[in-house]
Model the fold of this input.
Amino acid sequence: MSNVKIYPVILSGGSGTRLWPLSRAAYPKQFLPLVSEQTMLQETVARVGSWPEMQAPLVVCGNEHRFMIAEQMREIGVRPMGIMLEPQGRNTAPAVAAAALHLQRLDPEAVMLVLPADHVITDVLAFHEAVRRALVSVQQGALATFGIEPTQPETGYGYILRGDVHGTDTGNYLVERFVEKPDLATATGFLKQGGYYWNSGMFLFKARDYLAELEAHRPLIGAAVKEAVSKAYSDLDFCRLDDAAFAASPSESIDYAVMENTSRAVVVPASIGWSDVGSWSALHEVLPADAEGNVVRGDVHLNQVKNTLVRAESRMVAVLGVEDLVVVETDDVVLVANREKVQEVKAFVEKLKNTERTEHVHHKRVFRPWGSYESVDSGERFQVKRIIVKPGEKLSLQMHYHRAEHWVVVSGSALVTRGEEVTLLSENESIYLPIGVTHRLENPGKLPLHLIEVQSGSYLGEDDIVRFDDVYKRA
Done:
């Protein structure tokens, strides 16, 4: 395998609604440190980073997450091959097709390792070995999927039934069929019968083979994505696919579009400590528990509690005399759920989307490419925010029609443009920005800038921003 180049393609387009309120649309679970000090995206990249055959990763994501991905790659010292932006989510088949077309231009023999950004794999050495076994079949023209050897009759996963052995001494099998998520009785029968694996959603294949099968079975997807890639353009360090062409692609998963239709599908059995962390109960299972089966994180105090997950993000949480619960606290939401009902979190989030509330979209702390802001207090005609600007970064040159602002520097230094004036502010200094005045905030220092912003006016929405210049090229 030493002469083969493998290109990791990291799919980071999910919203992780089942892990609400920690995971939200603007900051989904792949960007969160759920099982270690690293985020799930960082762990996914790290597990292929020290492997000689592996090339730099190509990340495919939505436009709204581009700066978070760039920052998290910078934090772990990884320079990705590229960050490809989907104009809108069209599921995994078009996303992987765009990556395949890009890689085929670079390397006609490119082998793609397609990995979701938000999975847990605890046995990395076994994962590497599974990829090596998959490569043997891929070199013979197969499209390989990784089947997780089941440990229990799980109803939250799809299944793969293996067929005949593929090749000689590979340990891989032809795919007999894919099975939708079963009920408990059916899943129990699968385990008794044997030959069934959980469908992991991870794949290894040559870019050209995937594109050939896509063309054969879903030509509309192939044509739309080909046009989107041919019209793609660079924006800062990002690759933007053509909006109209990509939107014309049907929305479909790899499994439905290709793997269930091709005669070249091979399943690679893998026992690698895998979980897609698709719910709070799944997270409970992959984290170390105490003697009573409890998993805790943060300032948590328990008394007579069993088999419960408690996560405190911003304050002390005390739990007394309960069993089999999930308790998740953030600075604006508290979730309490029976462990058997956590799959219903997704339905609850869908209900939130139909209201005027925003807790399904944002945390109180909202991340921007220049740093972050957090609402501290608000009322009629006023709002107070805490703003953090990273060293060397700047906000857009902007103005507001409906609000004035006071800025007070708490720590660091602020270079403020106000109309024609440019002023350098230090700790405990402030400046007033009247309605309608063009202004910009910049951190010229080497330390983060912490600032308090007091807004006052008739309308304080985030859409009351007119941008004249922006280094991040936002509208």
About this structure: The two ends are 46 Å apart (CA to CA). The first helix runs from residue 40 to 49. Residues 292-348 form one domain.
